[in-house]
């Protein structure tokens, strides 16, 4: 039988084969820079030799699903504000606090997850952060009061920012340079799909008129069911990542795990090209010495506490992690990286203030327009948003006496928010093409 069509006995054809590489069975030591026969190949060349095919397709699907889940998790509250105001007796200031609390969690989480991604692995951070998002969503749906709900949403923001930021390097580190920008741009399509999924799911669940009172402090209404279901995708995708996908070769190599990195690359090669793993031409990977310090014999250099199986105390490990975190921040804001860091922060600030923040408030604003029309009649002349914002939705007044209001906003609110989300789809589909044609810098300036 021809070797190109034969089926090897190992499970390397399977995207889901996660069997670890065993150094002892191979009969050699792993020194981090690959003491194997043949020339050492840089990681970019090794990734290019694996080909570009179905593995990258499924990787894009899972990373896109992660990003879509992040969009769902970060915009869930937009429909909770008008639906939960009666249960929590919310005024405008309380609603602002609910919207702001996950963002505060993101500020703290970004430092933690960024450091963990560099030391513990991209895949581990994705799995843990998605699991945290699901748990926070579950507890949020059961929160008996306003303060408990805020605490749960803080951890929602803390967790979801890890998945939001790390899914980009996770995807890019399996891609050759020429395919990187296009596939990273394609992730934006999944974000828009997530933004569109939220009003669709809210429209399906929040209008349901049911109540369940497991104990006097908690009345479980339809908006709580909506919050719970918005967290379920995080659990499903986190489990899929854990059991079905690999750690990135770049991270494995940066930690001195040469053999494991090479084994992952072989599996990508086999999945893409349907060929025997022995046909993968790379036998030895060059160590990334800017991330891995080597001894004179080529073996990886360890911290003093790592020799002879010794393990540092918990306090010492925390101190070391904080030192690494501090060094990383200093590096970002010094030398040639400083101007790029500040530029990225400025761009992200503009995006968050002009797009994301408004997306959180759109359903609330639309609901206030609806209340304004009901108060002044359908033919009332509205001079601007300020007139509508003057209509304070006070639960202590007339709003919570209506069963319809208790079970969420008007149907037009869902429809109009869905249309706003769909309006972003054409640009997101064109993004990859435009970046290739006119360049990233021009696209950002536009």
TrEMBL record:
Localisation per UniProt entry: Membrane
Domain Major facilitator superfamily (MFS) profile: 59-446
GO molecular function, one term: transmembrane transporter activity
Residues forming coiled coils: none
UniProt KW keywords: Membrane, Transmembrane, Transmembrane helix, Transport
One GO term describing the cellular component: membrane
Pfam families: MFS_1
Ranges that cross the membrane: 57-84, 96-113, 125-151, 157-177, 189-206, 226-245, 340-362, 413-435
Database matches in Gene3D superfamilies: MFS general substrate transporter like domains
Topology term for the membrane: Multi-pass membrane protein
Highest taxon above the source species: Eukaryota
Protein name in the entry: Major facilitator superfamily (MFS) profile domain-containing protein
Organism from which the protein derives: Cloeon dipterum
